[in-house]
Design goal:
4 domains, six-stranded mixed sheet, Immunoglobulin-like, elongated, Collagenase (Catalytic Domain), mainly beta
């Protein structure tokens, strides 16, 4: 991980960019962009400190810690006329850049308008400073300079600087990145999702239909009793989730999707969902060489292949090289050399099969942990049958094999100097001809250029 704090470039009221961390190309990393909300121009320095603190808070929780090399992070400063955010419940209004507001009922959920004066400004700043940002796969985090606790997830993560704001930030990332549901059981009208299940929330009590069934020990009772301490640290089926104390179930007694204390962490089921979400965006390999996937090799030539592995903590990504669909024994390193002599003339394939063998995931039906890169190879090779002298002084010659271009018949009297005699192409793998001038050369060969 590279953490680089620099000056705003440039520091302007309507926006400025700072690179917090770079680990690779934006096209194969999860880009996180922090935006300032409710920070005045005089508080630019405060945001410059808050943004990297927020990043470290996010990466301090698993599975983000193990996959921190899969993230790039940036911060964009946009000055607000006033500090803080709107609190309709308290009659407080603030003039801020993205027009954020707390909900009028609980004074906790923070949102910005999905219009030009809210989300539209975010999009415009992203286009200005990070045109490579992809809204459907990267993360936007809006840091609200307000002391009241609150936040939200969804199209973007929003969190204030209130109590346990670091855990609120990580919790909301579970919604936005992992598509996780809330595991609260206190009724909150308008927030429950009737009939809608999540990777960590279900109404099913039959093992075969529970989304996280691969994590449940057969000896664990279903539903799992909360009053028995022996089950507090195992994956089971605990009643109480989705803002309901009955009928909805969660995987573990406690999880960051249920409580946001400093010691809270994602349970194993939520960690799995987050790793799969990261791997959906960041593939296990990059910089595949050769860049072209259509190659030609001759009998005495070799081809060198390589891949850069995007490794999490623990170096869990493994590679297996294959030729024509079959694994090559011992070919499990990032580089592989193929000898042309090992192939018969004709078409072949070479594959680099990558897989992240992380312990965070037990079920990957969509194959997000795997990646296959395929090269198509033509092995060129020719066979020249011994020329036969026919009646009348003619000579019959047959060339067979595989070539991607023209075939040249050459003649020589001393095996040192060769003269081009005839040029043709192979039809259905061969070239047959009769010619009177061939015998005078003594030696013959058929050649083609890769």
């Amino acid at each position: 991980m590279a953490l680089a704090l620099g000056s705003w470039a440039p520091a302007r009221a309507e926006g400025g960019l700072e690179t917090l961390m770079t680990n690779g190309p934006c096209g194969n990393r999860l880009d996180v962009v922090f935006f300032s909300e409710g920070y005045t121009s005089a508080e630019c320095g405060q945001f410059s400190a808050d943004a990297p603190s927020a990043l470290e808070a996010l990466l301090a929780k698993q599975p983000y810690t193990a996959y921190r090399s899969h993230f790039n992070a940036f911060a964009v400063f946009a000055a607000s006329a006033q500090s803080g955010s709107d609190h309709p419940k308290l009659g407080i209004a603030r003039d801020t850049y993205f027009n954020s507001t707390y909900d009028p009922a609980g004074d906790y959920v923070i949102t910005i308008p999905e219009t030009a004066d809210g989300a539209g400004k975010l999009d415009a700043l992203l286009q200005q400073w990070l045109p490579a940002f992809q809204t459907n796969r990267d993360l936007v985090v809006v840091l609200v300079n307000d002391a009241a606790r609150g936040g939200s997830g969804g199209p973007r993560i929003i969190t204030s600087k209130g109590a346990t704001w670091e855990e609120v930030l990580v919790h909301e990332s579970g919604h936005t990145l992992g598509r996780l549901g809330d595991e609260y059981e206190e009724p909150t009208p308008g927030f429950e999702h009737p009939g809608l299940e999540f990777p960590n929330v279900t109404t099913n009590t039959t093992l075969a239909r529970i989304p996280w069934k691969v994590w449940i020990d057969p000896a664990t009772p279903l539903p799992t009793p909360e009053d028995d301490l022996q089950y507090w640290d195992v994956i089971g089926l605990f009643e109480g989730a989705n803002y309901s104390s009955t009928g909805w179930y969660r995987p573990k007694y406690d999880c960051l999707m249920r409580t946001t204390f400093s010691w809270s962490r994602f349970c194993e089921v939520c960690q799995e969902a987050l790793v799969l979400a990261i791997r959906e965006r960041v593939r296990p390999g990059e910089d595949f060489l050769p860049a072209s996937t259509n190659l030609v090799v001759g009998l005495g030539q070799r081809l060198a292949f390589s891949v850069a592995l995007v490794q999490p903590e623990g170096q869990t990504v493994r590679v297996q090289w294959c030729t024509n669909g079959m694994p090559v024994a011992g070919a499990t390193h990032a580089a592989f050399v193929l000898e042309g002599a090992a192939l018969a003339p004709g078409p072949h394939t070479v594959q680099a099969r990558l897989e992240d063998h992380t312990a965070f995931v037990r079920s990957d039906p969509a194959g997000r942990l795997s990646q296959v890169q395929t090269w198509h190879i033509e092995r060129i090779g020719l066979r020249l049958d011994p020329p036969r002298v026919l009646g009348g002084g003619d000579c019959y010659v047959r060339v067979s094999g595989h070539a991607t271009g023209e075939v040249v018949l050459e003649g020589s009297t001393d095996l040192a100097a060769w003269q081009r005699l005839l040029t043709n192409g192979l039809e259905e793998g061969e070239w047959r001809f009769t010619n009177r001038c061939v015998p005078s050369h003594g030696f013959f060969r058929a050649v083609t250029t890769p």
